[in-house]
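thought: fold this chain, then report.
action: predict
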Amino acid sequence: MNNKNLGIRHGDIPLYPINELPNGLKEMENKGSYILAEGETTGHKHVIVSEGLQVFYSADGRLYLKVKNQGNITHQEHKTLTVLPGIYEVGKEIEYNWFEKAVKKVVD
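observation:
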């Protein structure tokens, strides 16, 4: 993965630019848009929309995007962000609970 400081952050969804897709990925069907994350309590969604969008996932559950044309990420509580053409790994925001001494996924 490239320098994570150069990525895009949309709420708790980070996108990290990478140079190429890893081997062994499976492509997911989409129609130019894909829900990157959905809130467990609110039902709000982080959605990427781009013509020619390709979405891939790895055996270990990592998500990758190939954005062929400029697109946007939307969410009901965040401003719309532009995503430039490129290849991205979708990160997972985590937090450390000092009282439970455990790491867990951030819940929207």
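thought: worth noting. Residues 1-5 have pLDDT under 50 and may be disordered.
final: tokens above.
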